[in-house]
């Protein structure tokens, strides 16, 4: 099965050739067959030993992508795919595997692997978000590696394979700006996502796409938990479901992530953080806005000045300012368009613990349920008591 490599071929300075580590006993845990068929992928091949090798980054041309990122407000100049590979593209969508082992971008002390719980979590929550109408990366597969790894305890390792409109992020643009690659990367982003736009138009399109997505988060009570610039895509898709959670009782100051110690990415601050991240994007584009630095800054400021109106319009269109966190049967009756079923925190946490211990039956029950957000499920359609509930990024 052949995948395309337009990103790596167009931008060789933005990738490093890498491959996935050998796995002791790989096995397919779950495969999104409808998505595979949608992308023109051969389902039978993906289930085969050679298909698993492809999905694990052990065959074909595979690459670790370079990017930077402001993490909780602090710039890390070089991040990149430290445990992930871009396998290629199919039907215009990236195929990307996470948990494949170390790459040139791995952080000191990282084994580059993933525990099965966080991998299954990303697969399920991204499929739930897709069913809820939120732009998102999607789960293509989860593959058990047959390896045991040490986390809070010894657990099975796994790889999650996801699809994305692309993995271009604000952090990609930051890295490109620092390495004199901003023009070719911006040109590629325009060609791939917003054909015909100029550089100011690129910025506006990203602003509008991200505002629409964050407004949908606000309507659903979704808290991303790690809105770093490397997790803000140019396509507007939601990416990285590490410490995310759903608010079940309305409180603007709600956050669950163990690493967000100051509540920077709390529910009520998500629109503001998007604005902050977009300002960082505007900084990378200054040389492209105009050759004169003062004129470029004026263009950036005037375009960035549109953000409040764009964000408010998106919130209004989602009726998000009236969100009450009450995604229940009663709320569903008041609004025929309101979802009744979401991946609530405690049932999902319970399903992942069972799956880690080898029992996936409850996980698969919840996975099917979140694909039908307007159908009642006894565990996913009623709020729980989340006092003291904490999420972990799973790395």
Descriptive account of the structure:
Helix 8 (199-220) packs antiparallel against helix 9. This protein has 395 residues and is an alpha+beta fold. It has helices spanning 6-10, 33-38, 43-47, 49-55, 116-131, 170-178, 182-193, 199-220, 270-289, 293-304, 307-318, 329-334, 345-356, 361-370, and strands spanning 15-17, 27-31, 63-65, 69-71, 74-76, 84-90, 93-98, 138-150, 154-164, 222-223, 245-246. Helix content is 39%, strand content 15%. It starts with 5 loop residues before the first helix and ends in a 25-residue tail after the last helix. It has two domains: 6-164, no CATH class; 170-322. Mean pLDDT is 94; it is low at 322-330. The longest helix has 22 residues, at 199-220. Strands 2-8-9-7-6 form a five-stranded antiparallel β-sheet. A two-stranded antiparallel sheet has the order 1-3. The chain has a two-stranded antiparallel ribbon with strand order 4-5. Mg(2+) binds at residues 231, 240. It holds the Pfam family SelO. InterPro entries: SelO.
């Amino acid at each position: 099965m052949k995948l395309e490599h337009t990103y790596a071929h167009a931008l060789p300075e933005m990738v490093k050739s890498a491959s996935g580590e050998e796995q002791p006993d790989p096995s397919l845990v779950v495969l999104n067959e409808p998505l595979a068929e949608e992308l023109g992928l051969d389902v039978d091949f993906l289930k085969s030993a050679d298909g698993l090798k492809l999905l694990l980054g052990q065959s074909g041309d595979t690459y670790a992508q370079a990017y930077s990122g402001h993490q909780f407000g602090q710039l890390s100049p070089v991040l990149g795919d430290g445990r992930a590979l871009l396998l290629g593209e199919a039907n215009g969508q990236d195929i990307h595997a996470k948990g494949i082992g170390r790459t040139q971008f791995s952080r000191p002390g990282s084994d580059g692997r993933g525990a099965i719980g966080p991998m299954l979590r990303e697969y399920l929550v991204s499929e739930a978000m897709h069913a809820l109408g939120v732009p998102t990366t999607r789960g293509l597969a989860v593959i058990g590696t047959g390896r045991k790894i040490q986390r809070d305890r010894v657990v099975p390792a796994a790889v999650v394979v996801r699809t994305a409109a692309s993995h271009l992020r604000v952090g990609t643009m930051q890295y490109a700006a620092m390495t004199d690659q901003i023009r070719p990367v911006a040109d590629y982003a325009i060609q791939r996502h917003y054909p015909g736009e100029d550089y100011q138009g690129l910025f506006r399109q990203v602003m509008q796409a991200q505002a629409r997505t964050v407004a949908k988060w606000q309507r659903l009570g979704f808290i991303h938990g790690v809105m770093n610039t490397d997790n803000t895509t140019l396509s507007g898709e939601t990416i990285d479901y590490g410490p995310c959670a759903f608010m079940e009782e309305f409180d603007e100051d709600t956050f669950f992530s163990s690493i967000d110690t100051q509540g920077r990415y709390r529910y009520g601050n998500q629109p503001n953080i998007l604005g902050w991240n977009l300002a960082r994007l505007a900084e990378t584009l200054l040389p492209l806005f105009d050759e004169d630095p003062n004129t470029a800054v004026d263009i950036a400021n005037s375009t960035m000045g549109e953000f409040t109106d764009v964000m408010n319009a998106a919130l209004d269109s989602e009726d998000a300012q009236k969100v009450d966190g009450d995604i229940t049967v009663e709320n569903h009756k008041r609004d025929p368009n309101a979802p009744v079923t979401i991946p609530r925190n405690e049932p999902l946490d319970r399903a992942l613990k069972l799956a880690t211990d080898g029992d996936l039956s409850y996980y698969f029950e919840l996975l099917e349920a979140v694909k039908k957000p307007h159908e009642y499920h006894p565990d996913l359609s009623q709020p729980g008591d989340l006092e003291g509930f904490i999420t972990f990024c799973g790395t």
